[in-house]
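anyone seen this seq b4? input:
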Amino acid sequence: MDKANTPAEKKLLSADDLAGLEKQAAKKVDMGSTWISLIAVFVLFLITLILPFTGKANGFDILVMNDQALEFGATPLERLFVILGLVSMVVVNLAVVASRSMLLTYINWVFAGITGTAAMFMIWMGQTRLRAEGSSGTEFGAALSGIVAIAFLLIMTGLIFRRSEEQLDIEDARREAGSDDPVADAQREASVGRRFSRYEDSPLFVDDRRKKASERHRPRNTDTTEAED
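predicted toks r here
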């Protein structure tokens, strides 16, 4: 199947060819200028890892759980967040930007959701620990990384639901081309009210109540006349 590059060329293809083109187009994400935001998330998250997360322990200290992290009471949840952030906002994020793969975008959307949830719990538990134990609680690095994670989730959600111009063109072409199944075409036309040009032409809207009433009364009138004779 030759690739149709313009909307006019797509309209010349059959419904089956258009369906194949639509599947191919759905495999790639329409990134547009969003890649700049994704790279910004990548850079900002790495910067937050060198900032204090809890006490004087930064994100890299918490990642390896060294003596500095243990001294300032770093929690397993903070370490989990750092690991998830490295996977979603660094590794898979770069893979999405490089490949434009919709499959990787869906996978990273799931990772972004988990990371964003972990970020909210990390900040909340850090503030709870601050009040309960008198510790330093959530430091600037942890708070900033949490904000970056939530922003990343919003960006990935926008990518998931975005439709490219090519997909919209194919959808229009498929709507005009119809399908090779006459039954499906008839059902679709009836559902959108295009089967009949006027409602009077449809048998569903014919008002034959007077005709039926006259037919019911006609034999009765004939019998009455014969009885009088």
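Confidence is low (pLDDT under 50) at residues 8-12. The two ends are 83 Å apart (CA to CA). kinda curious what u guys think
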